[in-house]
């Protein structure tokens, strides 16, 4: 199990290393969260809720693996 995890991590690092991009989907979710309310406690509650229900994690994973890869190969980001 440990060896397969290390191998998968290395493969992911090698194949995804040059796909670092602007992370537009993640930034869109983050910007939306900052504008939910003028009250910082409400924004914090929404932030924590979106981490418990892994919205931020899913968006970041999709950006890293899918969307930034598409942008790297095509030159256009699918999230505008």
List keywords for this structure.
mainly alpha; single chain
Structure description:
This protein has one domain. Helix 2 packs antiparallel against helix 4. The chain is built from four helices and no strands. It has 80 residues and is an all-alpha fold. The model has no long low-confidence stretch (mean pLDDT 82).
Order of helices and strands: HHHH
Instruction: State the helix count.
Output: 4
What is the total number of structural domains?
A: 1
Mean of residue pLDDT values: 82
Using the alpha-carbon principal axes, give the shape: flat
Q: Give me the Rg, rounded.
A: 16 Å
What ranges have pLDDT less than 50 throughout 5 or more consecutive residues?
Answer: none
Largest sheet: none
- The end-to-end span amounts to 39 Å
Quickly give the structural class. Answer: mainly alpha
Summarize the structure.
The chain has four helices and no strands. It is mainly alpha-helical.
Topology, please?
Elements: H1 2-16, H2 24-34, H3 40-52, H4 55-74
Helix pairs in contact: 2-4
């Amino acid at each position: 199990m440990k060896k397969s995890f290390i191998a998968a991590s290395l493969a992911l690092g090698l194949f995804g290393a040059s796909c670092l991009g602007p992370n537009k989907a993640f930034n869109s979710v983050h910007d939306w969260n900052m504008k939910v309310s003028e009250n910082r406690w409400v924004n914090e509650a929404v932030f924590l809720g979106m981490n418990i229900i892994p919205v931020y994690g899913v968006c970041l994973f999709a950006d890293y693996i899918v969307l930034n890869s598409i942008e790297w190969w095509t030159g256009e980001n699918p999230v505008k």
